[in-house]
Amino acid sequence: MLPSIARRSRSALALAQALAQALAQALGPLVLGAWGCAASAPELVGSWRLEGEGVEGFIEASPGGACAQGGVRVGLWGPTWGTPGVVQADVELAQEGLAWLSFPLETGVGEGGAVLRLQGATAMMPLGGRRGEHEVHLRATEAPPPPDRGAAADAAARTRLAAEQAAWAQGSFRLEDGDRLVGELQLRGDALPVVQVYDATWWSAGPVEAQRKDDGGDLLLAFPVQPSLGGEGALLRINVPSRQVVIPLDDLPQDEDRKLVLTPGTVSADARA
After folding, report:
1. For 175-232, how does the pLDDT look when each residue is reduced to its tens digit (9 = 90+)?
2. Are 86 and 101 in contact (CB under 8 A)?
3. Which of 17, 144, 162, 223 could make an S-S bridge to 210, C-beta 3.0–4.6 Å?
4. Residue 238: which H helix or E strand, with range?
5. Is the peptide bond before 253 cis (omega within 30 degrees of 0)?
């Protein structure tokens, strides 16, 4: 008798499972419509135009709810960087009126990630590894996206980024202080970079290899240099997205830090001499 009861129990269980599955398939859309599609408070809603020195873009945030997928889209283009088209952004609301957006960003070395702080009528995007340095400050005006949804700005940025990526792939740069040549840099793929500096404040004994580290959006190059009272060397903090260079005095940014620009190109023997 026990085997017979067991067989009947298994048959009843299988029948109950089949009925439950069929019921779920039949009623699933109704249940979802009744309870799963309740409107939820969106994290960020609205649209903003973004403007700054050499920078343009927009943010468009649409609400979810009623089974509709909401989302935040960003298009932002600068002189030497830009979003790859209009991209999806993740949003974190830190507090009322303050949102952090994270999204992909292209630079001269390829695609990475960026964050942008939106607060009231201002937006800020940090590009460097040190707080308060290499920050892009923008005006945020509540307005719809441009009629072409950034197509013209993106096309122009594509041209600039292609030239930027070609320059970084070639790896030859001039270190300039205003319009004065003060050194040069050669990136060599997996090999150590080579730096040579020469002006009234520093000098290297010809091209020297530099030890390399990465810090956020900054490339750090340490190399021997003269004058050196205690054997200390020089440090270049190269901000890759902007090609701005800082020779830091301390771990934190200082007003007295020397600032240079990395310009694509080679140095002739006459110019070096």
Report:
1. 999 999 999 999 999 999 999 999 988 999 999 999 999 998 999 999 999 987 666 7
2. no
3. 223
4. strand 234-239
5. no
CB of 46 closer than 8 Å to CB of 61:
yes
Cα–Cα distance measured from residue 150 to residue 193, given in angstroms and rounded to the nearest whole number: 37
**Torsion sign (Cα): 133, 138, 119, 126:** negative
Tokens of 81: 């960087």
pTM above 0.70, yes or no: yes
Give phi and psi for 47, each to the nearest 5: -140, 145
Strands (E), 67-210: 71-77, 87-95, 98-107, 110-119, 122-126, 135-142, 172-177, 180-188, 191-199, 202-203, 208-209
Q: What is d(CA 39, CA 65) in angstroms, rounded to the nearest whole number?
A: 4
In the chain, count H helices and then E strands. 3, 18
Q: What are the helix (H) ranges across the chain?
A: 2-31, 151-170, 269-272
N- to C-terminal Cα separation, the chain: 105
Q: Work out the number of other CB atoms within 10 angstroms of the CB of residue 216.
A: 16
User: What are the residues whose beta carbons fall under 8 Å from the beta carbon of 196, sequence distance 6 or more?
Assistant: 183, 184, 204, 206, 207, 208, 272
* Whole-angstrom distance, CA of residue 269 vs CA of residue 102: 45
DSSP-based three-state secondary structure for 4? helix
Asked if 59 and 118 count as a contact pair (C-beta separation under 8 A), the reply is yes
Residue 158, phi then psi, degrees to nearest 5? -60, -45
Give the span between the Cα atoms of 32 and 81, in whole angstroms. 43
The dihedrals phi and psi of 82, each to the nearest 5 degrees, come to 175, 160
